[in-house]
Amino acid sequence: MPMKSIAAAALSDKEFNLPEIMTAGILTGGVLFILGITGLMQIVYKLIPLSVVRGIQLAQGLSFALTAVKYVRKVQDLPKSKALGPRPWFGLDGLVLAIVCACFIVIVNGAGEKNRGCCSAPEDGGLDGQRNNDESESGRKSKMNRLRKIVFSLPSAFLVFVLGIVLVFIRRHEVVNEIKFGPSSIEVMKFTKQAWKKGFIKGAVPQLPLSILNSVIAVCKLSTDLFPEKEFSVTSISVTVGLMNLVGSWFGAMPTCHGAGGLAGQYKFGGRSGGCVVLLGVAKLI
């Protein structure tokens, strides 16, 4: 996930350009890397109360939800982060289609994991007089359970994403000619002293608390909740966030970090193995 404070600074300040964004990512990554390899992040992890972490997760969820509602209600100019006006009710980019997609996701994923364990057939009755009725009822419930299992196993978010891609080509045929496959060319960036200074003050300083709490500590806590059989270390998480920014930012890569919101979303919609992350990375490179 992109580092939100750095991205917000870039959107709000026209003079906070690519060099400042990259230096902010390098400095933030450097601090996280040092906190990880020295073991200081482990101390921070033990000192932060669980209630603070849960508050961060709640705030992230509400923030994503409110942003989604804003994007649905208003037509957006995403590069400028501005609303262009109310969205029409009908059409390939209308509110009705958005509501249908939202209902589809809620129906498929809204029941929760515990409520999906309904796919085992009930036991037959013990009395001979009720055996036929029990078998008939069991057959009906078995068919219903199989149908529920199929519905609950649908990759709802991926299907909605594919629908969105298809609608893009339907609405704008000329977009086919604008498609360019990657990876993009790579070049080492050069930074001035002013870029380092501004990147530190306006980018790294406000980003560090968010990265420490949401990208390291909250991710480790949430990972333990979602995968209790596995062991997670704030040291390794902090080091990986630091390394990917210490390396990527020199070549123009957007400063990125782990995020509790992204982890929760991927888990909820079925992305629970390293393979899905690899596929996502390959798709982004292409």
From TrEMBL:
PANTHER family the UniProt entry points to: MOLYBDATE TRANSPORTER 1, PTHR31970
Recorded GO MF terms: molybdate ion transmembrane transporter activity
Region (Disordered): 121-140
Native organism: Pisum sativum (Garden pea)
Keyword Zinc-finger: no
One Pfam family matching this protein: MFS_MOT1
Parts of the chain that traverse the membrane: 21-45, 89-108, 150-170
Keywords: Membrane, Transmembrane, Transmembrane helix
Superkingdom of origin: Eukaryota
Listed InterPro entries: MOT1/MOT2
Residue stretches of biased makeup (Basic and acidic residues): 131-140
UniProt-recorded name of the protein: Variant 2, TATA-binding protein-associated factor mot1
